[in-house]
Amino acid sequence: MAKNCEDIRTFISAQLDGEITVRERNLVLEHLVSCQQCREFLNEVEEARGLLRSLLFPHTTESLDLRLLESLRATQTRQVRWWKRGLTVPLPVAAAVVLALLTALLWALAPGRSRNFAPATEETAVRTVVIQPQDVSMFTPSAM
Amino acid sequence: MPVSDAELVTRFRSGDDLAYVLLYNRYKRQVVAFCRGYVGGDEAEDLAHDVFLRIYRRRGTLQDGNFRALLFKTARNLCLNALRSKSQHLQLEAFPEQPNSDPETDFATRNLLAYLLARLTSEERELLLLREAAGFSYQELGDFLGKKPGTVRVQLYRIRDKLRTALVQLKQQEQKSGQEL
What we know:
heterodimer; A: 144 residues; mainly alpha; 2 domains; 7 helices; 75% helix; B: 181 residues; Rna Polymerase Sigma Factor, Chain: A; Arc Repressor Mutant, subunit A; 9 helices; 77% helix; elongated
């Protein structure tokens, strides 16, 4: 095969893909007039391409359509279930958290408890550290 | 004028299922054809189904970029996985001693595609399928495969020449066997 024929066949292949310039197309046409082998190449390569496409592309996609639709429905149902579960399962947890927070708040704000949160002053520090004798006597055997 | 892929992807991402259906209808035949060429006829539809389902489930993370490239990358990955598990399966199972059906009929109807594509390397097959099934342009093929469009052009010519030769040989064999009968 002449070098020129190889170039022309590359152009013929590109022509099938619509990826050829006007200049290249003219070269192909000129060449085909005088080259029987390249004309045969064109016919055979077109035939091979047509056959390949007929084998690759499905005649119908009806079964795929139905299967995919079924799968998408199942996916959506799962998503809805997850969403529902998301509402029911965390609710007791959320309620427990809210309850715990409220209890902690009430305990913190209860009269006589609030001072525990105040910074220790000299007075309170003495009050908590110094143990009075009557306190000690409560734990002595004689007092029991 | 048809709505662009990018616009449909944006609409689909924001919850419009109709946009997904339009994308599916636009590409379903191409994806089935690509998978058919990659793994064979039997599994092609299963794989195409998985490709579109995976795209649907990725709704929230789909990018605005080239949807077609993403679609066929997904298809290629699923096909490669299927081929890997198939080869493992074949290693585990012994080949049947007797073919189940008439090999001649089988060949003519079911294995012609496999016969033609078996003449190509896996790289050549992928390039051909991206062109013939997915309809990629030379520029898109170059971007997808990391090649120059000029290289793609020459490679496609060589691939087509191989297919042409295979088909010519097949015809000659058929003529020869016809004459013998």
